[in-house]
Amino acid sequence: MIPKIQGAQRDFSAGEIDVTMKRADENPLMKSGARQCANLRILNSRAVTNRPGRRALFLETGRVEEILMLSATPGVVNTFYLVFSNNGILRVYDSTGARVFTQSGYNWTTDQNRIVWAAYRSSIYICYRGFIPVILSWDGVSTWSVVNFSFLADSTGALHEPFYRFAASNITLTPSDRVGTAINLRTVGNYFTNNMVGSIIRYIGKQILITGVTNSTTATGKVLQQLNLSQELTGNVTSGSFSVGDVVTDGSIQAEVAQVNSAFLLVNYMQNTAGFTAGETIVGPSGTFVLVGAPFSILPQATFQWDEEVMSALRGWPASVFVDQNRLGFCNFPSLPAGIGYSAIGVLNDFQVGTLANQAIFELAPGKSQVLFVEPGMEGSEFVFCDNSIYYIPITATNPLKPGSISFNQLSRLGASSSVQPRSAEQSIIYVKAGGTQIGAVQVPGAYYRPYVVDNISELHAHLFNNPVAIAIPTGSTQYEETYLYVLNVDGTIAVGKYLMKNGLLDAGPDGKPHVGWTPWTGAGTASWIGALNSDVVFTTSYAPNGVTPVSIVEVLDNTLYLDSVLLVNSLPAPFTPPGGKGPLFVFPGPGATVTLMDQTNRMMGTYTVDANGNIIPQGNAGEDLTTASLVAGQPWIATLEPFVPDASPGQNVHQRMFKRRVSRMAVYVSQSSGFIMSRLFSGPLTRTSPALGTGMNIHRVDTWNQDDDPTKPPALREEAQRWRPLGRAFDPRVAVIKNTPGPLIIHEIGIEVSI
Question: How confident is the model at residue 707 (pLDDT cuts 50, 70, 90)?
């Protein structure tokens, strides 16, 4: 008698793990993972069920985000859909799917994943590389409007914006006068270019608008803020010495030394002041100077203390935005990648850096970092995701976010992906690590000296991630009690991670590491975006059933459905109302388009064809009624669960692992079953004429209806065990449970008897 081993798997919480685990018997993840776990949802019981369907909302392309906006009516919150459509179009739809706003002319095409937006009260601030940030606003009643972001301006035209020294440190700037609309500007060293006309520079903190450029060292400008006084100081150096660029003070007034002589100093004052007075002692970093006579005013002198705008048409615009602590923040500046700018508290267009607690802030992240995203996080802290590092900024009641309070504490030397914005999952922040093959989580272990840690939550699931473009995490759950992470890949597939939180952390698995069970979700369509708000998960998906012209549909996850892109055929949503003479499915450009029909909640009717006018072509099947109110049309998917066939442990020689083996029996324990397939899959050897690995070789179908059931009624959802004897042998035998018809199914256990 050929020795056999029996195995039963009841825990599928690890999801679909890497196929290289197929001989890793000692790894606990192999005992809770599967070789295939596609289009299934992991339950808290660690069983799996057929994934939910999706309900069609309206037709649209690109990125769609569900948002909530406060109405002008107190206590009323309205739902809208913010759409970054293909080819540079910004749109808004209301909760019924009606378009209420459109604005074109932006420079995104199909890379809307690089758009970053943040909401503050009734406004949405939107950033994208290469264009000035825009503000989309709603009046709380019916009107949407969009304007370019602009800084708070003084009556003179001076802007409350951040500045930075971009010119080489040895280049000085000399204005010809303190006031005027056409003063001369001169630099020592090449600096000016023709495209600087219209930009603003600062001379010792005072703004000058460049109005013309003569050559690389000469320009003209309009003084927006009267320049500070410059003076000649007559007196004696009583000790030490002075150098050009030294900052000198009498204890309250500060000035920069512009020229040094044995009997006098030329200085530019660093604040608006009448200057020093005779008899004062002026102290510098390496000397003292006593004024003998009264100082007298002179024209502005050359200075090293000048800078220019961080954000402008010349230097470019930030590609990332955030809101935290009642401040608006910008980062990912093309001219200054390490920069982070915060507005004044409550004044979101005031970025004039100051020293008071409520004033604006501008900081640089350490090293040669490019700050990609700033995410408000746990316990008030902020998390700075850079291309080469991750930092956190501690913010507490005793150390609030204010000028001079910011410190960067490094969490990781491995940065984040520049194309995927991190998202919060309860107390954790989920992000894509640089390189696009790993999913990371910033977590709070509660240690005093190490308050935050970075964990890898996609180990042994790397094959499910292909250059992710979006993360979506619902913040509530009304459809089921489980919580999930959704990651959209560039190829349109979706990886769904089942997670639990325990003591503020992602729950640890049997190996002691954060435990997220990932499963791939695919379907008849190709997803181009995924977003989440509260319990809703919204998809933008392109469908081309039976090869017809693709149609892009916005849809929402719905656990009561068993198809994607579902339309209630005889009670269509307003956006799908057919024009005169057209049928209910006119959106599918037949002839030849196919849909799957269901009625009475979960009675599968089969695949139907749509004609050129959008009418469903009847088939005359038993119980067919294309006018019933419960009739839905959508697109199907196939769910597959393939466990790892158990291997014999080393021991007394019975030729274990040395010969081809056979699965002599497999048993499946299910509930809520509307039918499924048990299949043996091809596992080699590959030859020129062999089928592909994973091809079904022989099957046993558990029918939706038993022989004495009425197929015109919904199927009885059975709780049962089904057993089957597959045919064939292989060194690596493979069997699977396949759900290829729409409807519910929960798989509790798969038992396998296999020869050694």
Answer: confident
Q: What is the mean pLDDT of residues 268-295?
A: 93
Rounded alpha-carbon distances, angstroms, from residue 30 to 6, 19, 42, 548, 742: 16, 10, 16, 41, 29
Residue 597 sits in the same domain as residue 628: yes
Tell whether 620 and 682 lie within a shared domain: no
d(CA 265, CA 244): 9
Average pLDDT in the chain? 93
The predicted structure's pLDDT at residue 295: 93
CATH code at 680?
2.60.120
Window from 315-319, 422-426, 453-457, 727-731 with minimum mean pLDDT: 727-731
Distances (CA, A) of 669 to 35, 341, 609, 754: 19, 58, 35, 18
How far, CA to CA in Å, does 23 sit from each of 18, 26, 208, 732, 751?
11, 9, 71, 10, 18
- Answer whether residue 567 is part of any domain: yes
pTM check: above 0.90: yes
Residues 606 and 678 in one domain: no
Structure tokens belonging to residue 618: 């009847």
Burial class of 74 by CB neighbour count within 10 A (0 to 12, 13 to 18, 19+): exposed
Segment 466-474 shows an average pLDDT of 96
Q: What is the total count of domains within the chain?
A: 3
List the one residue out of 202, 127, 160 whose CA is nearest residue 360.
160
The upper half-sphere exposure of residue 708, i.e. CA atoms within 13 Å in the direction of its Cβ, equals: 0
What pLDDT, in 10s, does the model give residues 166-192? 999 999 999 999 999 999 999 999 999
- Work out the average pLDDT over 89-100: 97
Side by side, the strands of the sheet bearing 371-376 are: 371-376, 382-386, 390-393, 409-412
**Neighbouring residues of 583: CB distance < 8 A, sequence distance ≥ 6:** 610, 611, 613, 614, 615, 616
425 torsion bin: left (phi>0), alpha (psi -120 to 50), beta (else)? beta
| pLDDT tier, 136 (very low <50, low <70, confident <90, very high otherwise) | very high
Rounded distance between C-alpha atoms, residue 755 and residue 664, angstroms = 7
**Residue found under tokens 């390490």:** 338
Q: Which long-range contacts (CB under 8 A, 24 or more apart) does 581-585 make?
A: 581/613, 582/613, 582/614, 583/610, 583/611, 583/613, 583/614, 583/615, 583/616, 584/614, 584/615, 584/616, 584/633, 585/610, 585/614, 585/615, 585/616, 585/633
- 416 found inside a domain: no
pLDDT digits (tens, 9 = 90+) for 546-572: 888 999 999 999 999 999 999 999 999
Q: Tell me if 655 is assigned to some domain.
A: yes
Containing domain of residue 612, as a range?
560-635
Q: Rounded CA gap, 650 and 629, in Å?
A: 61
∠ CA(611), CA(614), CA(617), 5° rounding?
45
Statement to judge: residues 595 and 687 lie in one domain:
no
Q: Is 218 a residue whose pLDDT tops 70?
A: yes
Residue 656 pLDDT grade (very low, low, confident, very high; cuts 50, 70, 90): low
Looking at 576, 601, 635, the residue that finishes a domain is 635
